Amino acid sequence: MAFELSPEMVALLGIFLGLLARSLIPFLRKIEKEGQDLKWDNKYTALLVIAAIITILSFPAFRAITNMTLSDPYALFVSAFIYGFFVDAAAIEGFEWLRPGKTETKTETETTKPSSSTPT
Which pLDDT belongs to residue 112? Predict the structure, then answer.
């Protein structure tokens, strides 16, 4: 007997793995930058929990968009993965805008550059 997943399960799995992939990219980038001795930060655990919550909340929107009419399970999985990846990217950007103290600052060269309107 072959193991088959329903279209809903394929879509949920795709969305979750897309969210998970997008959430772990910053951690993988940090490992590459700082080396293998990097310790796991609880912020990444929070991102995984947020990814699970966003999966549950965004599934009805994905289901409405696709109406689960994609006959190929592979196409459904890839569509769901891409959807999950970009939903999480949008969520991360939204959280970055809302974080206090995350404003753009002038670089050192901009602050020490002499003004062109100096009196002579």
Answer: 54
Which residues fall within 8 angstroms of residue 27, CB to CB, at 6 or more apart?
A: 41, 44
Task: Specify the pLDDT at position 119.
Answer: 57
CB-based contacts of 47, cutoff 8 Å, min separation 6: 23, 24
- The domain tally of the chain equals 1
Residues with Cβ within 8 Å of 88's Cβ and at least 6 positions away in sequence, in order, are 18, 19, 22, 23, 51, 54
Tell me if 31 sits within 8 A of 38, measured CB to CB: yes
Domain presence at residue 97: yes
The structure tokens 């979750």 sit at 16
**Residue 114, in any domain of the structure:** no
Tens of pLDDT, residues 51-86: 778 778 888 888 877 776 667 888 888 888 998 888
